[in-house]
Recover the amino acids of this structure.
């Protein structure tokens, strides 16, 4: 696999604050690589060091084979960057922004195609200030794709968007990858990381605490799953004792939750359903909840609130 | 980045900034319309009679260089400062940093646009003054242009200093207002300083715009540059100060 980003022992401090303590990882060509972490974990600092916008205190960074600090001009022409916080002048129109930014690149992509591809044709003449949050983000993705980049950086792409806009943006990111580009993104939505990313790095206090595919991270957590159902009457007296080993029962009014791990041969849900059937319990609305990336995230980074 | 690319980007950026300037009602109004309204007010109130306040010249004849000074102060200190402070606060300059072009092109485009608009404001005054009020111009056009270039650039320099050191758009707005309005009244741009009390007249010597008013009025009447060495010296000093200080204090984010 071709390495697109190589980071070794990256460290960045602001005065007394250590933003990134010691981070090493690689991103391979054609993948969507995600970086997740609580606020202040060092995600944006890391991505901005890769983009060449910040100078690391220590460590080695190679992006597309070059040092982002010393050869930033090469990177600027080959990478697309969407910043966490940026804007265009309020009265600049969508087409004007694309036309202007296209003039900055020696081999710019056709912005009229991008306009169509990102569903912004109707908003062609709309001033920036009149765009919705989702439309602004789509415009920023279009600007990031103008250089026809090999690598695209997306920092907190869907923060503040409604679910429709978020799903539309996810589809766009998948399209970008389908064109053979590599995507590096940061997010604090675990669902986003789980659905989009081939591999995810969990960052906490400036260090990577886990890095793997979402499925492997979840599997390694070895967390319990939950079987949830409603019953009208009370459960039979012997129900709890008949549950598989180590499963726990939680009753909230009509709702019953069984916490437990899947058995070696039989999944937890099968055992619960066959027990309910054999004891003649009428149940409704049965569903299961698998552990997800959010559980992994919370177990790795703790549940206490961060500033 | 090749130089023909830079020129291509700069011309696109300049055209864009020009459109944005004209779309911003306040900046277009204060630069292009407001001075004209003032000129017509002068014309209607004072008429064509010579006034002893201006040494026998008509108020209107003095109005064009004075109102040009007003435009320079407003464009250089308000439009310029506000645009740059807004671009920084909103991350527009930062977005430019992620592209192959230097964010310096936005500064260059800004100077070209503000300068052109200020010049256009002066041109409108001259055309209206000649056509409607038959204002007389006794100076040398090139000389006047030279004085205008020096005055404008020295004020843009101060605008860039302000944009660089003001922490937010709000403070930049308040500070530029606080600086510009007293300057307009104390520099002699609206009425001759001689009508003010002696103590206040002393203050006008410390107002940079006074030197713009003196230089432009003098050149308008055809006085030689030699009579305005003090004005030229002060404005050149401001220009150099503006470039040096703003280069040190300007922040992209």
């Amino acid at each position: 696999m071709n390495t697109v980003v190589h980071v070794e022992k990256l460290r960045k401090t602001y005065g007394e604050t250590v933003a990134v303590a010691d981070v090493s990882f690689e991103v391979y060509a054609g993948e969507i690589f995600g970086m997740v972490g609580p606020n202040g974990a060092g995600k944006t600092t890391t991505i901005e060091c890769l983009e060449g916008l910040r100078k690391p205190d220590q460590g080695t960074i190679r992006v597309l084979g070059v040092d982002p600090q010393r050869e930033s001009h090469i990177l600027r022409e080959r990478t697309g960057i969407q910043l966490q916080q940026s804007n265009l002048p309020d009265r600049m129109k969508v087409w004007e922004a694309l036309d202007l930014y296209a003039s900055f690149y020696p081999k710019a992509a056709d912005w009229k195609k991008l306009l169509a591809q990102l569903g912004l044709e109707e908003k062609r003449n709309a001033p920036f200030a009149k765009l919705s949050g989702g439309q602004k983000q789509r415009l920023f993705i279009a600007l990031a794709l103008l250089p026809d980049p090999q690598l695209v950086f997306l920092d907190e792409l869907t923060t503040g968007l409604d679910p429709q806009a978020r799903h539309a943006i996810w589809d766009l990111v998948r399209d970008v990858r389908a064109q053979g580009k590599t995507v590096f993104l940061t997010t604090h939505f675990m669902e986003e990381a789980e659905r989009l990313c081939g591999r995810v790095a969990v960052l906490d206090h400036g260090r990577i605490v886990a890095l793997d595919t979402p499925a492997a991270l979840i599997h390694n957590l070895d967390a319990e799953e939950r079987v949830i159902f409603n019953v009208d009457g009370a459960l039979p007296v012997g129900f709890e004792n008949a549950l598989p080993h180590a499963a726990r029962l939680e009753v909230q009014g009509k709702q019953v939750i069984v916490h437990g791990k899947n058995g070696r041969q039989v999944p937890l849900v099968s055992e619960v359903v066959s027990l309910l059937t054999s004891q003649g319990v009428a149940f409704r609305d049965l569903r299961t909840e698998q552990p997800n990336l959010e559980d992994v995230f919370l177990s790795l980074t703790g549940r206490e609130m961060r500033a | 980045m090749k130089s023909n690319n830079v020129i291509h980007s700069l011309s696109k950026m300049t055209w864009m900034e020009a459109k944005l300037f004209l779309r911003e009602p306040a900046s277009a109004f204060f630069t292009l319309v407001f001075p004209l309204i003032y000129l017509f007010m002068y014309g209607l109130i004072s008429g064509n009679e010579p006034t002893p306040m201006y040494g026998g010249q008509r108020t209107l004849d003095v109005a064009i260089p004075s109102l040009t000074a007003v435009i320079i102060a407003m464009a250089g200190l308000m439009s310029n400062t506000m645009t740059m402070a807004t671009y920084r606060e909103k991350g527009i300059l930062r977005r430019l940093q992620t592209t192959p072009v230097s964010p310096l092109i936005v500064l260059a485009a800004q100077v070209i646009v503000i300068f052109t608009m200020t010049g256009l404001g002066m041109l409108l005054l001259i055309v209206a003054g000649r056509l409607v009020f038959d204002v007389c111009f006794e100076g040398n056009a090139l000389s006047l242009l030279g004085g205008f270039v020096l005055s404008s650039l020295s004020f843009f320099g101060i605008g860039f200093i302000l944009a660089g050191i003001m922490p937010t758009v709000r403070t930049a707005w308040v500070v530029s207002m606080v600086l510009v309005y007293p300057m307009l009244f104390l520099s002699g741009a609206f009425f001759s300083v001689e009508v003010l009390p002696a103590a206040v007249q002393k203050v006008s010597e410390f107002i940079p715009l006074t030197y713009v008013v003196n230089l432009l009025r003098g050149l308008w009447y055809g006085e030689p540059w030699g009579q305005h060495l003090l004005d030229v010296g002060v404005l050149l000093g401001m220009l150099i100060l503006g470039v040096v200080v703003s280069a040190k204090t300007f922040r992209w984010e």
In short: Residues 3-249 of chain B form one domain. Chain B has a mean pLDDT of 87. Chain B touches chain A at residues 1-2, 5, 8-9, 12-13, 16, 19-20, 23-24, 86-87, 90-92, 94-95, 97-101 (CB under 8 Å). Chain B has one domain: 3-249.
